[in-house]
Request: fold
Amino acid sequence: MSSPIRVLTAVPICDGHDSAINTINLEFIRHGIEVVYLGFHRYVSDIVRAAIQEDVAAIGISSYNGGHVEFFAEIVRQLRKRGANDIAIFGGGGGTITHDDVTLMKRRGVDQIFFAGTSLADMVEYVRQHYGKKRRPGAKINGDIALARKLTEIEDSFAKHKPRRSPGSARRFGSSRNSKRARVLGFTGPGGAGKTTLIDELVLRFLQRNPKGRIAILSHDPSVVGEGALLGDRATMINSQDDRVFMRSMATRGQSGGLSPATESCLDLLAHSDFDYVIIETVGTGQEALPFRSTLVDQTVLVMNPDYGARLQLQKIVMLDVADIVVVNKTDLERAKAALLEIEQRLAQNNFPQQIAATVAKRHRDHGVDVLYDLLMQDSTGAISGRRKQRIERQRAATMKTRSR
Amino acid sequence: MSKLGQVVEAVEKHGRFVLEQVKRARSDEKFARELSERWQMTKAGIPISRAPTGLPLPRLALPEIDEPGEIARYLFGEGLPGEFPFLNGAYREMYLEPLERVGIEDGSYGNKKSPNGSQGQKNGARPPEEPTRLFSGLMLAEDTNKRFHFLSAHQRSKRLSTAFDGPTLYGIDSDADGVFGKIGEGGVAVDTVEDMVRLYDGFELGSPEFSASMTISGPAPIIMAMYIAAAKRRFGPSVVPKLRGTIQADIFKEVQAQNETIFPIEASLRFLCDMIEWTTREMPRWYPVSISGYHIGEAGATPVQQAAYTLSNGFAYAEMLAARGIPVDQFAPRLSFFLDCGLDVEYIALSRVSRKIWAIGMRDVFGASSRGQMFKLHTQTSGRSLIAAEFKNNLTRTAAELMLAYMNGTNSCHSNSADEPFTTPSEEWIRLAAHGQAILLEESGIFKHTMNMLSGSPGMKAVERAVEKAILDEFRQIEELGGVLAAVENRYQRSQIQNAAHRYERQIYDGTRPVVGLNRYRDGADEVPDIELARTPKAKQQLQINRLAKFKKKNAEKAKRALQKLGDVVERGENCFPALLEAAEVCSLGQITGRLQELVGRFRPMV
Reply:
């Protein structure tokens, strides 16, 4: 089975017309295409960076607010400048893009513009025909673009059932400082708890406090075998659209448990690619999920919403037995106080130090997020490696518990 | 229960009340007699005027009923035009030719007492202006200004509606990285108070004949402050209480549909309420928020979703303003509405039902007096219904939509240009669109002789009942999710709208939704209007940037102080609008947005 086609879609800066692109995204997904959706009101630089990091075959731009000739041409220019000449650009804008415009845009390197009235089926067909082929990158690629292509290779090898598990080669790929391993933070929790927003706020703090640091994010969205996926976390992660953040969105491609078959290998590569931190975010998980079995994950964070239901539900959440930090997000909700108390009592059943943090991630400059950031950053490497071992032990125990249930 | 839940109960209660009155009219002889007498007097008092052909017609048509129960059902359930619950119209005469022009044959509405005794005579007053609003916005301020003068040359009242370019809508300055091609595209570029002065140059901003409408929401409080600052520069501080017009400022619909939000939702709502609190006190003739379903409809919502989300957003604003301690009769009469009108059958009665639900909710849940119960409505024909293929058909689409809008008794209306799928409308097609309204209202006899000319057909009543029920069901759903704000944060409305949009597109592609020239009667050659596209020349875009640079240089010191002060006020949690007014004198839009975003953060888009 071949890998799904990956495309990135977005709406240009100062344009909020996302009705058409939402419909097109849904149609792409239905037909097996993985769509990294960047959202509306997006700068060229954000689009180009995302396309490179996500290593998509093509960028689709839906523009209704004018200025399209300049906008599309600027994408081409910046892609070429960064050596990603083989990423194609297509788009549309109803009747706002005229035939004369299209002639000009194609001359400047745009691959295809769909006029008003083009059927969804025709668009899907075009994408499959033209962007499903193996691409030829420029001769010399390095930096993020090379890393991104390597991640694609790993993902593709899993799609073909020829997993390529060779951490050694990953290390060789890293820079001269390959002895440095990034600290890996795993975030998990139920859908709607606010993981993505929380991670984005932590990234913002990281960028503000480490003027030279780099961070990587491996984010997951669900998909089933043979179908596409909407990889939409980038749209929400406004602070993570930065040259010092390398973000990769992965579809789970049929694997249950919150991660993708290729996650472990991709993580191995990222952990040895000169980042200070690598953050993994799982898909929204259920009560039985224990997603971080990897020895590469240094710290695990469970993000919860105060609205988990009755206290009894807490007993069933296995991740509470193993998480290093439990975050109760959305503590502006009415139930938050009671929830914090109940969760504290639940954690007291475990015989090892776990920390608990209360956050309102959607609030700018939230104090709770500051506290969580410090918790994550202060941990010394020694303490972490000790705890990692213990966690793996606990995880094994928790797994047994789940099975016997 | 939020106020929305109470509105549902109030509407249901009102329904029961009407049925009780019907029963009572059929069992209580005294009550029946009173009703019959009132009905006879109302009918006898209706003036008669003559059509140009000499045909005498009553200025108000009433159903042919004489049974007291049915009279009760009509008077309490629908109300005469201008009377609670305003189903048939917010005002008594709406688009009728003024009496002095046609001459009265007979009668003068003798009995002005309403069945509920709650309505004063004020509602009988005819809106003094043409219901046509002229929409424009292109290139730089002086270009839009020229277009405004062209469009309004023959109008007795100057009602200008302003579209802003992308950078302005997102609170960004024209000199920001990566926005160059967007300057002056799709609307006018406004960066500073000086642009605002140029934009309305030559118009008497304080005149009762002038009103400005500004279509902007995300940075609305900042743009509002700039408008006030510009008016003060030109006419002195005494002009402020005289300013008339409206600014869209509808944050909820931005988050639900149009995506032009720049601060997090709660901060946006705070700045909005700061502005409403200030303007409803200091500018009693200004409408500081236009609660808009238009963009919800354009984003693909069904008509019922459009009306339900618009009304519930309106009730949510009312709840927030009331919670601030602003008296309901200070803010309620300053809330106005903006709906889309397309070709789906619901539009036959959508605004009628909306008017009724709003009136009941405002009276019974918020305790508003008569002026605060009225759903004052601007309608725009559907842009979404216009297509590029065989675009001249768009004239017919717009004409049909206009007809529906006026059947619903909209207070003002904008008709789209047929060339809109291609570009900012050109003068030729704008004229045709505006003239479409004049043909309907002035040339044809459909609306100018008789109120209720087309109200209350059995079909219309059937649509009303179905639509009302569906809107209340939506309210219940939102209430179940914790009210409007909670539903918005959980992206409920967004996903509902997106699902409806997807269904709409699929229906077009599979042919179950006929679109002439697209999936039916397509004749091949797609014609493109022979117009010069309204693209902003590079030289103009550069001029805007140069002007901005000059402004920033000139005001550098003052701007720093104003922004500092603004920041302090925001941090202290006070009403920041007075500080915004000061900042607007010396700061650019982008400078103010930037300062506020440092403090409250940026909007995190929902997908």
User: Anything to note?
Assistant: Residues 87 and 352 of chain B are 5 Å apart (CA to CA). Chain B is about 50% helix and 5% strand. Chain B touches chain A through 51 residues (CB under 8 Å). The first strand of chain B starts at residue 48 and ends at 50.
